[in-house]
Amino acid sequence: MHNYLRAAGFRSIRSARASEQLMRETILHHDRKRAWQTSDGFTRCEFIKQYAAEIGLVVCGEFDEDGNLHPQHMFPFYKGPVISMKQPIEFELHSADESYGAICDDPRIGTSIIFHLINAADMIYAEDGRKADDPIKSRQVRFSALAKEGSILLPIFKTHEEEAAVMAQRERYLKLVSEAREGDEEAIEELTEDDMNNFNILMKRVQREDILSIVETYFQPSGIECDLYSICGNVIYCEQVRNGYTHENIWKMKVEACDVFFSLCINEKDLEGVPAPGTRFRGRVWLQGFVEF
């Protein structure tokens, strides 16, 4: 049973029997089905069904020689409307469950972002039509995050002058990162010096202030699994929807963390506080991505 089913409104699905019934419901009343041949000659398939607006389940399975379907696993998804970035992306097959992970670099965060690919079948169809010597192109990605738990925090008050200074600092940082990636030694030294200065300032302020009053947002890996992240981000938009199968309420949000915009969903019962534009969301999430092929 997938750990993040509850984020998509399946908090009440706790037994193996209930999970099998849900998988059967998704297969029988799917909204979309995709099938393809593997290099080993097997026929794999995906059954996709929405149980709320843009939120649902993907059931993955395999057909045998007699045409009988053997479901293997399922995972929840949220196909958010927010286009997060456009970057070259690399994909990797997870041999344990035949799912795909993806990785792309983001200069805004300063590191690579690893996420679970929602639309693996679209990638396989696209790769079948791609020539072997074609370069990997930049592709638009819609990031979405599923949270098992989270809390709503108050925002950090800033004056217009402080907001303008923060924006100028971000633009300067991105410019330096771009130059450093091209081998500019002066940019590398300047970034190193900035990191040391910021660290010294932080160490002084943290002695008398709460860390969340200093750091407005963050986006960092969490734990051993590579597509799990701890985040704190500004809530731009939020709405509540209901799962049509379990009738559980789900909070959908548009969140910004470290200049990265993404969609997020969490079960109402797993969220501490009530979200509103201007507040902040803090929690641990499973990062997904829908890639435009």
Please write out the topology:
Layout: H1 16-28, E1 32-37, E2 43-52, E3 55-63, E4 69-78, E5 85-88, E6 90-94, E7 99-106, E8 111-117, H2 120-128, E9 138-153, H3 160-181, H4 185-205, H5 211-214, E10 218-221, E11 228-242, E12 249-257, E13 260-267, E14 271-272, E15 280-291
Parallel strand pairs: 8-15, 9-13, 9-14
Antiparallel strand pairs: 1-2, 2-3, 3-4, 5-9, 6-7, 7-8, 9-15, 10-11, 11-12, 11-15, 12-13
Structure in words:
This protein is an alpha+beta fold and 293 residues long. 24% of the residues lie in helices and 43% in strands. It is built from five helices and 15 strands. The chain has a five-stranded mixed β-barrel. The protein has a four-stranded antiparallel β-sheet with strand order 1-2-3-4, sandwiched between helices. β11 (228-242) and β12 (249-257) form a beta hairpin. The longest helix is centred in the middle third of the chain and has 22 residues, at 160-181. The model is unreliable at 131-135 (pLDDT under 50).
In helices, the fraction of residues equals 10-25%
Beta-strand segment tally: 15
Based on CA inertia axes, which overall geometry fits?
A: globular
The end-to-end distance, rounded to whole angstroms, is 29 Å
Unreliable runs, pLDDT <50, ≥5 residues? 131-135
Q: How many whole angstroms does the radius of gyration measure?
A: 21 Å
Strand order of the largest sheet: 9-13-12-11-15
Q: What is the average of the pLDDT values?
A: 88
SSE topology string: HEEEEEEEEHEHHHEEEEEE
The major pleated sheet works out as: 5 strands, mixed, barrel
Compute the number of helices. Answer: 5
Please state the structural category: alpha+beta
Strand content: 35-45%
